[in-house]
Amino acid sequence: MKEANNSEKEIRQMLPVMLIGLVTLVMYTIFVTFYCLVLLQIDVEQQYVDKNLFKEGCAKLVTFHLLLFLMIWSFYKTYKVNPGVVPDTYEWKVDPDINRIKEREKTGELRYCPHEKKYKPDRAHYCRAIKKNVLKMDHYCPWVANCVGFYNYKFFLLSLFYANLCCFYVEINCYSSFPNFYSNPNVLFNDVFYLFLEIVLAVVILLIIFPFFLFHLYLTAKNYTTLEFCVVSIFLFFVYAVIYSQSTHFICKMNK
């Protein structure tokens, strides 16, 4: 029964990953079939092939596959690499070096995890999804079915970077060529429709992941994790709320 529940949980965790794979496959098929292969003119007789268009198609096909490979490799590494956990040693279970740890509980004691029964290093937090304390935990990402931490954050950032590059590359090429495809009587309606669909998909995905990528660039520049940023934001919200409340009360009192 327990094994069945674990299998069901693993399947649920992989659903977002499979969705990303499906969207990637759809966009790949459309771009290669209805854009690159059109430039390669595979259905045109040899004597009528435009060599400039053929060279352009080859260059774009190679560039796109290179970007796609880098994106998939980064995504796989984010999924596969252990984010970093607290060592299962005597030091972290019983006797941590207090001189190496700055973060404390509100009581002033060292942070202790009751789940793993270990002391926590600085910036480590317990992730309920993987049931481990993760070093420099950023967040649990369902889209890679893994927690993002110290050892795989670089690959997570690279995944966002190459995903944005792929979408920008597809968007720029398809959008710039769409008027020519639309006005060309030799191009079938299906080709035009799928090219338009590719443009829409690329725009929608960019609207989602590009701001997210900029946000993580900001976090990297400030040496924040997502968790730390949220804690600071909540703290500042309450500080501003208190200041606003006191200021409003003072102004109302002065106007009486």
UniProtKB/TrEMBL annotation:
Its main location: membrane. Pfam families: DHHC. Residues 107-230 form the Palmitoyltransferase DHHC domain. It is an enzyme of class 2 (transferase). The chain crosses the membrane at residues 15-38, 58-76, 153-172, 192-218, 224-244. It is a multi-pass membrane protein. One of its GO terms (cellular component) is membrane. It is found in: Membrane. Keywords: Acyltransferase, Membrane, Transferase, Transmembrane, Transmembrane helix. It catalyses: L-cysteinyl-[protein] + hexadecanoyl-CoA = S-hexadecanoyl-L-cysteinyl-[protein] + CoA. It comes from the Eukaryota. Its EC number is 2.3.1.225. GO terms for molecular function: protein-cysteine S-palmitoyltransferase activity. The DHHC domain is required for palmitoyltransferase activity. Belongs to the DHHC palmitoyltransferase family. This is Palmitoyltransferase. The lineage of its organism: Eukaryota, Sar, Alveolata, Apicomplexa, Aconoidasida.
